[in-house]
C-alpha cells in the first residue's frame, strides 16, 4: 500500500513543540496556532481577505419585486425555477459539511481557516435558496420540491459522481482520496451550478425575478473563488506530495471533469428543454468552455476545443452592483491617466 | 541594447508566460533579464531599452500589492525613451478581465513608449504561443528599424 493510500490522522488541536508555520498542507508539523503573518503560502492571506470582502446575506435582498412577478411566470417557468432551486440547495447542503470534514485533516492552519470560511459561505447559499422558496411558495410545496430533487433519477446520477468520492474520503481519509475529493469539489462548484445559473440569468435578461438573480450572482462570485482556491489547493497538494503527481492522477482529472461535463449537459437537456431562448447546443459549448477554464486553473491543457465564451451573459454582475472595495493605492494619490486603447498607436493582443 | 521582463505571479500562470516571452526575446538576439518582482530594486529602469511588465490581477481588477513600487518607479524614473509592453493572465469571468494590465497600460502609455499589451486567460495554451511571438516582434520592431 502506497503512502498516499495510508490514512491521514486527525491532527491534535495543539502541538506546542511544532512551528506555527506548518511544514505541509497534509501530514505536516504544525503547532495549531495561526499567525497570518507567518504562513507557508502568504498569498492565502489575500485569498482569505477576498472571501471575507465578499460577505453577504440573503436578508439584505428584498424579495418584494420577485414576489409580485412570480404570478406572471408561465407554469413551466415556475416548475423549472423550483426544481433548479432545490437541486442547487442540495448541492450546497453537501458542500458545507464536506469542507469541515477536510478541515480536520489539513495540517496548515491558514488552509483550515479558509476551509472554515468556505463552509460558512456554503451555509449562506443554502439559506438563500430557502429564503427564496419561503417568499414564493408554502411549506408544503417546498417539501414536495425537495422530495422531487431527492428522487429525480438524473439529479441522483449526477450527485452520485461527487458523493462517491466524498463518502470514500469520510470512510478512509487518505491523501489520494483527498485529491479525488478536491477534483470533485471543483466539479460541484465549478461545473454543476451552471445550468441552474443559466436559467436564472436567462430570466433576469428578460427583467424577470431579478432579485433572485442578484442572489445567484453573489453565489456565483463566491463559487468562483472557492473553485479557484480548491484548484490552488490541488496544485500545492501535488507539488508537496510528488507521489500524487502521477500521470494516472492527471488522467483522473481529465476523466472526472469530463464525466461531470457530460452529466451537466444531460441535466441541461432535461431541465431546460422547454425554456425558450436557451440554445442547448450553445450551452454544451459553454460547459466545455467552462471545463477548459478549470483545467487551466489547475495548470493543465485544454481538453476540449478552445473557444470563446459562447454565452457571455452567464457572468457575475459587474461590480457596480456590488459593494465595490477600492484599493488604497489609487485613492491615496490622485492619478489621472486617461484610459487608452489600440487606437492610440500600440497593439492590443 | 538591453531588455528586462519584470513580473509577479501567484498561480504560476504569469510566470509561465514570462518565461515564454523571455525565450522568445533571447531567440531574437535580445539580451533580456528575467526579474521576479521581489528581486526588483528601484532606480534600474532607465538602463533598459525595452521593458516588459507581467502581472496577474487581484480581486476587482486590482493591482497586486507587490507591483505598486514598480508602478511608482515608472512614474518617477527617467523612462520616456523606454519601449514597453505589459502582459498578464486573468479570468474573463471577472468584470475587469486582467484589470492590472489595463492599469499599467494607461500609466505606461503616459510615461513611456508603450508598444504592446497581451492578455492570456489562465494557463497559456498552444494558441497563445503565436501571440507571445507577436508580442516580442512588436517590442523589438522599432528598435531593430532604428
TrEMBL record, chain A:
It comes from the Bacteria. Fe cation 1 binds at residues 92, 122, 125. The keyword Transport does not apply. SUPFAM superfamilies: Ferritin-like. It is an enzyme of class 1 (oxidoreductase). The active site is at residue 129. Keywords: Deoxyribonucleotide synthesis, Iron, Metal-binding, Oxidoreductase. Fe cation 2 binds at residues 122, 189, 223, 226. NCBIfam families: PRK09614.1-3. Provides the precursors necessary for DNA synthesis. Catalyzes the biosynthesis of deoxyribonucleotides from the corresponding ribonucleotides. This is Ribonucleoside-diphosphate reductase subunit beta. It comes from Gracilibacillus halophilus YIM-C55.5. The gene is nrdF.
UniProtKB/TrEMBL annotation, chain B:
One of its GO terms (molecular function) is FMN binding. InterPro entries: Flavodoxin, Flavodoxin/NO_synth, Flavoprotein-like_sf. Keywords: Electron transport, Flavoprotein, FMN, Transport. Pfam families: Flavodoxin_1 (PF00258). Residues 3-140 form the Flavodoxin-like domain. Gene3D superfamilies: 3.40.50.360. It comes from the Bacteria. Its cofactor is FMN. Transmembrane segments: none annotated. PANTHER family: FLAVODOXIN 1, FLAVODOXIN 2. Belongs to the flavodoxin family. Low-potential electron donor to a number of redox enzymes. This is Flavodoxin. It comes from Gracilibacillus halophilus YIM-C55.5.
Amino acid at each position: 500500500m502506497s503512502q498516499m493510500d495510508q490514512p491521514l490522522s486527525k491532527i491534535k488541536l495543539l502541538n506546542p513543540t511544532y512551528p506555527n508555520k506548518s511544514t505541509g498542507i497534509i501530514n505536516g508539523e504544525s503547532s495549531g496556532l495561526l499567525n497570518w503573518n507567518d504562513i507557508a503560502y502568504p498569498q492565502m492571506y489575500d485569498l482569505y481577505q477576498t472571501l471575507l470582502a465578499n460577505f453577504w446575506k440573503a436578508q439584505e435582498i428584498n424579495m418584494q419585486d420577485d414576489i409580485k412577478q412570480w404570478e406572471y411566470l408561465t407554469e413551466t417557468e415556475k416548475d423549472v425555477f423550483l426544481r433548479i432551486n432545490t437541486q442547487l440547495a442540495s448541492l450546497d447542503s453537501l458542500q458545507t459539511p464536506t469542507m469541515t470534514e477536510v478541515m480536520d485533516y489539513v495540517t496548515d492552519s491558514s488552509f483550515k481557516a479558509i476551509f472554515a470560511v468556505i463552509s460558512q459561505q456554503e451555509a449562506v447559499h443554502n439559506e438563500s435558496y430557502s429564503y427564496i422558496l419561503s417568499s414564493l411558495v408554502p411549506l408544503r410545496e417546498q417539501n414536495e420540491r425537495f422530495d422531487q430533487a431527492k428522487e429525480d433519477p438524473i439529479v441522483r446520477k449526477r450527485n452520485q459522481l461527487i458523493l462517491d468520492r466524498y463518502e470514500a474520503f469520510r470512510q478512509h481519509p487518505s491523501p489520494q482520496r483527498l485529491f479525488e475529493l478536491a477534483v470533485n469539489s471543483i466539479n460541484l462548484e465549478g461545473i454543476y451550478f451552471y445550468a441552474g445559473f443559466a436559467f436564472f440569468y436567462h430570466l433576469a435578461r428578460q427583467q424577470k425575478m431579478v432579485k433572485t438573480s442578484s442572489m445567484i450572482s453573489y453565489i456565483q462570485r463566491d463559487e468562483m473563488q472557492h473553485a479557484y482556491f480548491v484548484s490552488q489547493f490541488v496544485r500545492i497538494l501535488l507539488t508537496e506530495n510528488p507521489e500524487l503527481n502521477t500521470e494516472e492522477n492527471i488522467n483522473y482529472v481529465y476523466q472526472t471533469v469530463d464525466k461531470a461535463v457530460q452529466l451537466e449537459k444531460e441535466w441541461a437537456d432535461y431541465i431546460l428543454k422547454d425554456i425558450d431562448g436557451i440554445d442547448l447546443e450553445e450551452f454544451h459549448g459553454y460547459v466545455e468552455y467552462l471545463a477548459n477554464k478549470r483545467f487551466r486553473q489547475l495548470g493543465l491543457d485544454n481538453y476540449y476545443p478552445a473557444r470563446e465564451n459562447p454565452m457571455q451573459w452567464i457572468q457575475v454582475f459587474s461590480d457596480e452592483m456590488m459593494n465595490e472595495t477600492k484599493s488604497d493605492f489609487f485613492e491615496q494619490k490622485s492619478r489621472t491617466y486617461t484610459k487608452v486603447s489600440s487606437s492610440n498607436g500600440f497593439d492590443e493582443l | 541594447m538591453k531588455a528586462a521582463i519584470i513580473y509577479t505571479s501567484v498561480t504560476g500562470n504569469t510566470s509561465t508566460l514570462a518565461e515564454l516571452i523571455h525565450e522568445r526575446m533571447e531567440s531574437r538576439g535580445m539580451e533580456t533579464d528575467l526579474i521576479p518582482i521581489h528581486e526588483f530594486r528601484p532606480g534600474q529602469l532607465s538602463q533598459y531599452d525595452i521593458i516588459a511588465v507581467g502581472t496577474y490581477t487581484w480581486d476587482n481588477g486590482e493591482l497586486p500589492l507587490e507591483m505598486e513600487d514598480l508602478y511608482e518607479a515608472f512614474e518617477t524614473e527617467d523612462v520616456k525613451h523606454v519601449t514597453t509592453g505589459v502582459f498578464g493572465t486573468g479570468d474573463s469571468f471577472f468584470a475587469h478581465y486582467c484589470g492590472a494590465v489595463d492599469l499599467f497600460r494607461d500609466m505606461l502609455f503616459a510615461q513611456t513608449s508603450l508598444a504592446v499589451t497581451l492578455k492570456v486567460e489562465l494557463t497559456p495554451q498552444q494558441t497563445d504561443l503565436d501571440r507571445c511571438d507577436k508580442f516580442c516582434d512588436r517590442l523589438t520592431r522599432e528598435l531593430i528599424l532604428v
